[in-house]
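Handout, page 2. Input:
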Amino acid sequence: MKHARKGNSSRSAIVTGAVAAALVVASFTPRVSAQSGAGVPQIPKLTGIWHRKGPLNGKPNPPAVPTNRAAGFNQAFDDAFNPTYDCSPTPIPGLINDDYDFQIVQQADRVIIRYEKMDVVRTIWLEGHGHPKPANNDYTTQGYSVGRYAEGRLVVETTQFAFDPRGFSANRWVPGSTLKKMTERYWREGDTLKLDSVSEDPISLKQPYSYGWEWTVRKEELTPYDCDPQDSRWGAQWHESKYPPDK
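Output:
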């Protein structure tokens, strides 16, 4: 009898497990079908590690055109103030312009981008999943990114950037204001990942700053950057100041 009860218990556990599994599948299925059903934008397969190939369609990217005030800031800025010396990551779009590889991981409700440069991790919150929005005064180095799939592309809009002297480049001091906005469009053609982007800033830019890149698949894992603030700040001494020493 004990053996019989054990068998019944086992069969009950199997049935219970099957029901639980079915519920999990049922709860996940609407997300998948909603993404891939008729009339819903196609989701490109962007997941992977990507290595820089060159500018989009082989066309060189022009530099950002600063306003007079931003150009004045660039002229006055002294290299010793560069936050990079203290391992502070460069914000996008400058982060993307640097020739470092990155990894994309697509999830049901978000997209994670991990950059080799400075070990930066960005989260792209996909629309339609009830993600909380940041507070009006919540500004960060990489901003707040919202994404959606449209016409076979991942479209990302990022706002709420903190002010940063490296607003549009890691090596040029055209600052990005808290009004900066960047729109990225990623898609895939075979084994090539492509990006077309536009950055806007009414305080710092005379006109929208557009650029694009292409990447190929990389098989090796990303290399940790492991920035050390003490070692990084040490390099600042080799850059001569624009200003005379204080007395």
